[in-house]
Amino acid sequence: MKAILCVLYLGAVTFGTLAGDLIKYQSPDGKFAMLLTEADDQGVSIKLIEAGSRNVLLDLADTGHPYSEHSNLLWSPDSKRFAFFEDNRRGGSTTVYQRSGQAFEEVSLPETSDCKNKKNVGKEFGVGVEPKRWINATTLVLLATQEWDDADDPDKTHKCKQTTRIVFDSAGKVSAKVVKETHE
Question: What digits encode the pLDDT tens for the residues 72-86?
Answer without folding.
Answer: 899 999 999 999 998
